[in-house]
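Hi U.,

Before I forget, here's the chain from the pilot set. I'm dumping it here mostly so it's searchable later in email.
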Amino acid sequence: MRVRRAMKGVGEFLVDTVGEAVAEAVLSLLACLLLGCLVLIAYLSWSFDPRLAIAGGGLLSLLLAHGAWRTFRAPGNGRRRGLAALTTAAFGASAATALFLLFYATDCGCL
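Structure:
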C-alpha cells in the first residue's frame, strides 16, 4: 500500500514538473514572437514614414498617459465612460503586455 502511494506521488510530481517546463517553453516562445512582431511593426512604420511613426508613437503615449492618469487618480462617482474607459483599458492591456515581455522575453535567446 505504501509503495503504491509513493509511486502515485512520484508520478504526480513528474507530470507537474514536465507540465510546468512545457508551459514555460510555450510562454517564452510566445513572448519572443510578440517581441519580434513589435520590432517588425516599428521597423515597417519607420521605413514607411518616420514623421508618421513619431506622431503615432506620440499619440499612443498620450493615450497611455491618460489611461494611467485615470487609473491611478482618486475614483470619481460611477463608472468610467467613453474615452476614459478606452484609455484605461489600453493602459491595462499595455501594462500586462509589458509585464509579460519583461518576465518571459528576457529569458529567451532572441535578445
